[in-house]
Structures are given as structure tokens and as C-alpha cells.
From TrEMBL:
The lineage of its organism: Bacteria, Pseudomonadati, Pseudomonadota, Alphaproteobacteria, Rhodobacterales. It comes from Alloyangia pacifica. Keywords: Hydrolase, Membrane, Protease, Transmembrane, Transmembrane helix. GO terms for cellular component: membrane. GO terms for molecular function: serine-type endopeptidase activity. This is Membrane associated serine protease, rhomboid family. Belongs to the peptidase S54 family. The chain crosses the membrane at residues 15-34, 68-88, 100-118, 124-144, 151-173, 193-213.
Amino acid sequence: MFPIRDHNPSGRTPYVTYALIIANTVIFLGYWSLFSDPRALDAFFERWALFPSHISEGYGYTGILTSMFLHGGFMHLFGNMLFLFIFGDNIEDMLGHLRYLLFYLASGVAAALLQYVADPGSAVPTVGASGAIAGVMGAYLLLFPKARVDILIILIIIFKVLPIPAWLLLAVWFGMQIFSGIGSAGAEGGVAYWAHVGGFVAGLVMIAPVWLARGGPAFWNRTHGVPPHPAANYAIGRTHIPRAGARQNGRKGPWSRH
């Protein structure tokens, strides 16, 4: 179940969302060549990723911020940027460019801090933007719970695009992060689940005053739970996707992604 687009383009150009996507991509391409040199890649992450154990020892604090601009592979980057592209524009439209940027960074910091609290002795580097993006998703859930999001469902050889309300997708996603976080130690399986939870909750908390200032439930009544812009209509029909072989990009490494 993979989201591919929403039905409510923003009312203004989301410059910050685009800039974040470009920044994450450019930074990744800047160290992409290191994936062929494990020692150099480890040294790079040692300097810029989030190491909970380093913070416990009194250093490495810069990783709280810089880790949210690093990724462990092309698909890791692509997935995160797709989520940011889908959900970020409408939140940027509501907050304005500068407040949205501060909101995004604050969500990423909150995500890193909760990941640290969950496993302060971990020596596994944590990288990824999805903690910050989870904050955007939390804000989207509160502001636009009934917005339609198209998801791609893949069942072996069956591909189907299905529109569902945002609250269902986001609630299921959040529940999976909590369930997986409780069932794992730290960043088991290479995923920092508690960073996702921390970012999502931070986004909900920080956007709540904006929602209340617009009337709370009365805001939902006025907007019907969707962004205040004309919805885009996409033709949903039989989906034809050619089969392609999988290709490994980069190497699997001992880092946690989020």
C-alpha cells in the first residue's frame, strides 16, 4: 500500500517543499560515490549521521540536524521525497514558507530526540528525512483528514490504484510505526520507528494551535476536511505497469534509516 498522489494541489507554489527535495537529492548525489567504498561511507556517516551513543557520551549533537538530510540508498531517498511531495505542499500553503520550514526542521529534531531516548546506547547511525516528513504527515492528518490520497496496491502481479481518505492511510501508517517500535529494539531491521513516531506526534502538537485558531471542528465543517482548493480529478482505471527486474543501488549498510 504505497501513496502516489493526493487530489488537492496547493494554492501557492510550494517553494520550500521543492527546495527540500532538491537539497536532499543534491546532498545524496554528493556522497553517492562513497557507496562503493564502505570505509569512506562509514567515516562520512560517523561525522554527519545521528549516533545515540555519541550523544550519551556528550558529543555528536550536530547529527540531530544533519542526519535528516542523509539517506542510506536511492530507494530510501525516493520514498521519503515522494511522501514529502504528496503531503508537504498543502501544509506549506497553510503555514507559509518560513513557518513551514521551521515546522519541518522542528519535527526532524523531535524525531531524532525520541529515537535517542528510545535507545540512547545505540551505536547504529541513524539517517533519513522521514522523521521530519512524519511531522508533515501528522499535520496533514489533523488539518485534512478527508482529503483523498491515491494508493498503489501491489498483490504479487496485481497492480491497483485506489483512492482512500488521508486519515485512513496516515492512521494505519502511524499504528504500524508504534507496533513495530514496541516489537523492536532501537532500530531493528534498519528502520528507526521511534523517530517516525516522534516526528508524527510533534507535527500533531505543533499544528494543533493552527487548527484551533481556525475553529477546530468548525474548520472541518467549513472545509469538509480537505484542503481549501478545487480537487484534481484523476481517471482511476486499469493500471498497466511493465514488469522490471530489481536492481540493487548501493550497498546494505549497518545504519538505521527513517
